[in-house]
Amino acid sequence: MNYHLVVESLLFASDIPLPLSKLKAVLDELSVEEIKSIIQELNQKYRENNHSFAIREIAEGYQMYTLPEYSPYIDQLYTLRRAQRLSQAGLETLAVIAYRQPVVKSVVDHIRGVDSGGVLHTLLERKLITILGREEGVGHPLIYGTTPEFLVYFGLKDLKDLPKIEELEALLQTREKERTAAFSSGEVGENINDSNLQGSLTTKLPPEGIEENL
Fold first, then answer.
1. Of the four, 117, 120, 158, 197, which is 20 to 30 A from 145 by CA?
2. Cα separation of 5 and 54, whole Å?
3. Which residues pair with 144 in a beta bridge?
């Protein structure tokens, strides 16, 4: 049995990142370290043979991705199937939550300078954020945080990989291209990047406390 081909086929077949535990459940005869080694060897083969795709570790799992340089062509293929993009307000709110979580609405509103109720509802619907609970005190406001879907979109293993706030806008643009080019984008779904951002998100978050929750 060629386990390299088995692992490759599993990754091609999955539309979500596959954790090692799930790969191990299918390939019970292999150890976790052997599966990791196979993935590394596959990536090496892809590089050596100039393949258009690679395996990336994201959200505590592995997923096939087309290399970014090919994304403009795939982007054209699926242009007509794209859904509505998030607004600039959506991106700003998502950035605040990502860097300040766990965070309540009043903090998000204070940082942005406007009410964020509608935007929070949209982010919840798109499963980019979740409700973590309620804060003790007057009114018991809801506490918000990001979701595994957020990690998948940004191509992050965990929140420790979150970039500096000044790098976030560039990352949003890059990840849109990679997400469009992903093998899982047979159904592209919602495109949450706003490539026409006016002004930098660096003006929206004060520097203090940005890294303390990572």
1. 197
2. 14
3. 103, 131
